[in-house]
Specification:
alpha/beta; 2 domains; six-stranded mixed sheet; seven-stranded mixed sheet; Aldehyde Dehydrogenase, Chain A, domain 2; Aldehyde Dehydrogenase, Chain A, domain 1; binds nicotinamide-adenine-dinucleotide
């Protein structure tokens, strides 16, 4: 009998074999655990602790206790703590990148590396931001000042597409403004959050950042819990609505970063050859599993055929494969649930007789969740592939003649996350961009983000913003002081 065991992929990659919850400054195990899969193979890479409701309660109590002293620290001290956290993350960066690829699927050498590096940069730089006191009035006998005070315990709930970046986007502004946190990562990608939670315990005071993995029911408890003052949520619109409803129990402050169906509009005078590549990556980066991925590409009919041909040519040079393989440009779909949704959408697109300019058939015999780059040539506006958020590597390229009609189509979407306009006449392109009903609009560039640039969706794409002064302010109460002199 062969008793040799397959070595754990985590140990083989130089990673810890075990992950624990971070509660009250301690690393704790749970009574049960659940499997975490590698989406490139669907093999188990490790186990995540299944935090119980009681452990979540302990984490919330610890965060509330830690808030008492953390919120009283001056801003400079909190900033130094958070910058030390960035240093500690930096020291474990390579492990974090590998872990991200193993549980999320994105290529290690490119997209996983850039996600982790961006996240660490964010932590370091956000730590240096603060909201100054605003003096509204200072007369002979009266002073009016506006301060921003911390809220208390923040519940952070994150998705599986960018677990490191979107998680740390919440941690840094939450802590530097004086709040404490309980984070619940997606059950599909819990390990990276547990890992950055563990790292935090060496540098932050106990209870300031708690990470509890488990099922969706933990998210529900967080949103209902009376000791939590704010929810910072990134995920689907359907769940966002539930978060808002249950957060009403104690009128929680709520920030929602939700889904989108972003359009890119290429005008007739665009230098279209030069934008094929950026638009390809804007649509297919992270295998399309991106809230702000371009999900409908409208191209003026005078250049549609040439543009589509060049786009397909470029797409053919891109390799989809295991993210640990340095030759892979795009990885698999992160989980089976999303893969099944794509199978269904591909089938609908095929059954409706729409034309595939590339791809169109998912090879279900593969062990991993691989979906080929797929381009749908000019489907009708009311097709599912145009109207829905696929969250996968499939893109419709739609021809248009009348710009006002396109603007109306873009704005008819219930989503309003972001959009972009591409044209040779910059003023004309800006004029079109100004008419798009989205939280962010780019002209002749795309997917620029920054510490000081607010990001948030309109309509069903969300509420509130992350980043920028407004994002920081979202973690605070406005408090007005009036002093008689
Ligand atoms: P999801 O809504 O299924 O899950 C998100 C998180 O919510 C997970 O941690 C999940 O466990 C938790 N959750 C599930 N049910 C809950 C409940 N009842 N109460 C509280 N929490 C609950 O989303 P997902 O599938 O992980 O992510 C994909 C979606 O996220 C896409 O629609 C995408 O567009 C969106 N997204 C938006 C942004 C943005 O910034 N706007 C960024 C990334 C992803």
């Amino acid at each position: 009998m062969n008793t040799a065991q397959t070595p754990s992929p985590l140990i083989a990659a130089g990673l810890p074999a075990q992950f624990r919850l971070s509660i009250a400054g301690k690393l704790v195990e749970a009574e049960s655990s659940f499997d975490v899969l590698n989406p490139a193979t669907n093999a188990v890479i490790g186990q995540a602790p299944e935090g119980s409701a009681a452990q979540l309660e302990e984490a919330i109590t610890a965060a509330a206790e830690a808030f008492k002293s953390w919120s009283k620290l001056d801003w400079q001290s909190r900033s130094e703590y958070v910058q030390r956290y960035a240093d500690a993350l930096e020291a474990r960066k390579e492990e974090l990148i590998t872990l991200l690829t193993l549980e999320q699927g994105k290529p290690r050498h490119s997209q996983a590396k850039s996600e982790v590096e961006a996240a660490i940069y964010w932590v370091r730089e956000v730590a240096k931001r603060h909201i100054p006191v605003e003096v509204i009035e200072d007369t002979e006998d009266h002073v009016v000042e506006v301060h921003h005070t911390p809220l208390g315990v923040v519940g952070a709930i994150t998705p599986w597409n960018f677990p490191v970046l979107l998680g740390l986007w919440k941690v840094a502004p939450c802590l530097v403004t004086g709040n404490t946190m309980v984070m619940k990562p997606s059950p599909y990608t819990p390990l990276t959050s547990l890992f950055f939670g563990e790292i935090a315990q060496d540098v932050l005071p106990a209870g300031v950042l708690n990470v509890v993995s488990g099922g969706n029911e933990l998210g529900q408890i967080i949103t209902e819990h009376p000791a939590i003052s704010k929810i910072s949520f990134t995920g689907s619109t359907a769940t966002g609505k539930r978060v808002m409803a249950s957060g009403a129990t104690n009128l929680k402050r709520i920030t929602l970063e939700l889904g989108g169906n972003d359009a890119a509009v290429v005008l007739a005078d665009a230098d279209w050859q030069s934008i094929v590549k950026p638009l390809f990556w804007a649509a297919f980066g992270n295998s399309g599993q991106w809230c702000i991925a371009v999900k409908r590409l409208y191209v003026h009919s005078s250049i549609h055929a040439e543009f589509t041909a060049a786009f397909v040519d470029y797409a053919k040079s891109i390799k989809v494969g295991d993210g640990m393989d340095a030759t892979s440009d795009l990885g698999p779909i992160q989980n089976r649930m999303q893969y099944q949704k794509l199978l269904e959408l591909f089938e609908d697109t095929r059954n409706q007789g729409y034309k595939f300019a590339l791809g169109g058939t998912i090879d279900e015999s593969l062990a991993g969740n691989f979906v080929p780059i797929t381009i749908v040539d000019n489907p009708p506006e009311d097709s599912r592939i145009v109207q829905e958020e696929p969250f996968g590597p499939i893109l419709p390229i739609i021809a248009f003649d009348d710009i006002d009609e396109v603007i109306a189509k873009v704005n008819a979407s219930p989503f309003g996350l972001a959009g972009s306009v591409w044209g040779g006449d910059r003023s004309r392109a800006i004029e079109v961009a100004k008419q798009l009903e989205t939280g962010t609009v780019w002209v002749n560039e795309i997917h620029i983000h920054g510490i000081d640039i607010p990001f948030g969706g309109h309509k069903l794409s969300g509420m509130g913003v992350e980043n920028g002064q407004e994002g920081l302010a979202g973690f605070t109460n406005t408090k007005t002081y009036m002093f008689k002199k």
